[in-house]
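Exercise 7. Given the encoded structure of a 133-residue chain, write a plausible sequence.
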């Protein structure tokens, strides 16, 4: 098998090919999902990871809802949820959010191991040396 080398143009064209798929919900219905972009994943990380007193603090209670809001789609392919839906999503049963969250992460190419490793590699203090607000 020959390996194809790609250049800058081909690599950047991949941004138009976000993976899509379906998550199976507890009642057997399907929810359309798509993978996240690097920008979206970074924004979620920014909202859920903070450094306080030199220690990494992960505010995970909204992470699942943030991922679902970013990657869940309507049947017509439009985003299903927005920022105003985060509170409602956060109140849903985990049994409904988890399959959608997991499918979005899978389509994004983000594994649980990669998420844990990224958290371990965050700096212990902020760039300015001050960790307090």
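Solution.
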């Amino acid at each position: 098998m020959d390996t194809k080398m790609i250049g800058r143009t081909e690599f950047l064209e991949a941004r138009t090919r976000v993976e899509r798929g379906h998550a199976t919900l507890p009642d057997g219905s399907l929810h359309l999902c798509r993978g996240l972009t690097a920008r979206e994943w970074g924004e979620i990380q920014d909202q859920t990871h903070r450094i306080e007193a030199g220690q990494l603090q992960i505010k995970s209670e909204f992470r699942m809802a943030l991922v679902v809001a970013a990657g869940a789609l309507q049947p017509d392919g439009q985003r299903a949820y927005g920022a105003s839906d985060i509170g409602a999503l956060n109140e849903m049963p985990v049994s409904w959010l988890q399959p959608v969250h997991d499918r979005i992460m899978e389509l994004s190419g983000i594994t649980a191991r990669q998420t844990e490793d990224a958290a371990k590699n965050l700096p212990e203090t902020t760039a300015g040396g001050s960790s307090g607000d």
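Remark. The first strand starts at residue 20 and ends at 24. Students should compare their own answers with the one above.
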